[in-house]
Amino acid sequence: MSSAHTLLRRAGLGSALAAATVLTAAGVASAHVTVHPDSYAKGATDGVLTFRVPNESDTASTTKVQLFLPTDHPLLGALVSPHDDWTAKVTDTKLKTPVKTDDGTITDAVSEITWTGGKIAPGHYEDFDVAFGQLPDDTAQLTFKTLQTYSDGKVVRWIEEAAKGDDEPENPAPVLKLTAADTTSATTSETASKTSVTTTKASASDSTARGLGIAGLVVGVLGLAAGAFAVVRSRRTQ
Questions:
Q1: What is the rounded distance in angstroms from the CA atom of residue 8 to the CA atom of residue 52?
Q2: Is residue 63 packed enough to be buried (19+ CB in 10 Å), middle (13-18) or exposed (0-12)?
Q3: First-residue to last-residue Cα distance in the chain
C-alpha cells in the first residue's frame, strides 16, 4: 500500500509539473504585441486599430514602444489617440508611390509612432489606439513591426514574419489581415432599389390605366346624355 501510494503521489506530481510547464509555455507564447481587431475589410474607412503591448518581464517595466507602419501599403490619415502618461511622436515619410483618392493624391503617410514617458509594470499591459482614414485595398495583410524597450535596457524586437505554412516565430510582428469587402449589403440594397423602382413604375402605370378608364366612362356617360337630350328635343319639335 505504501509503494502504491508513493507511485500515485509521484504520478500526480509529474502531471502537475507537466501542466505547469504547458501553462507557462502558453503564457510566454501569448505575451507578444498584437493588433485588435486582427482583420478588417480591404479599403475600410474611418476605423481604429488597437495595439496591445503586454509586459513579459518579471522585474523591469516597459518604458518605450516603437510602432512601424508599412509605407508600401500605407494607412491613410493615421491619427494617434491621446494616452495618459504617454507622449506620442509621429513620423511622416514620403511615399515612393503616391496614392490617388477621391480627395486628391496622397504623397506622404505616417511611418512610425513612438510612445515614451509612461510605463507598463510587470504583469500588466497597455492598449495604444491608432485611427485611420482608409486602409489599402491592394494587399492581403499589413505587418506592423514593433520594438519594446524595458527599463533595464532590454529591447524586444517584434519584427519576425512567419512564412506561409510555418509555425509562429518567437517574436512575431503584429499582423492585420485584410479581407474582401462585403458586397452582400450593397447587392441587397441595389436589388431593393430596383424592386422599388419597378413597383413604383407599375403603380404609376396602373394609376394611369385607371385614370384613362374613368375618363372613358365619363365621356361615354356624357355621350349618352347628349344623345338622350337630342331625342327628347326632336320629339318636342315634332
A1: 43
A2: middle
A3: 142
Q: What whole-number distance in Å separates Cα of residue 197 and Cα of residue 185?
A: 18
Entry field: residues in the chain? 238
CA atoms within a 13 Å half-sphere pointing along the CA-CB vector of 153? 0
Which region holds residue 46: left if phi is over 0, alpha if psi is between -120 and 50, else beta? left
What does the alpha-carbon distance between residue 196 and residue 203 come to, in Å, rounded to a whole number? 10
Which stretches within the chain are classed as H helix? 2-30, 184-237
Whole-prediction pTM: 0.66
The number of beta carbons lying within 10 Å of the beta carbon of residue 145 is: 19
Torsion of CA 196, 202, 203, 209, to 10 degrees: 170
86, 115 contact by CB (below 8 A): yes
The cell 507511485 sits on which residue?
7
pLDDT for 187-234, tens place per residue? 444 544 454 444 444 454 555 555 555 555 544 545 555 554 454 455
> Cis link prior to 37 (omega < 30° from 0)?
yes
Q: Which residues, 6+ apart, have CB-to-CB distance to 179 below 8 Å?
A: 39, 40, 41, 42
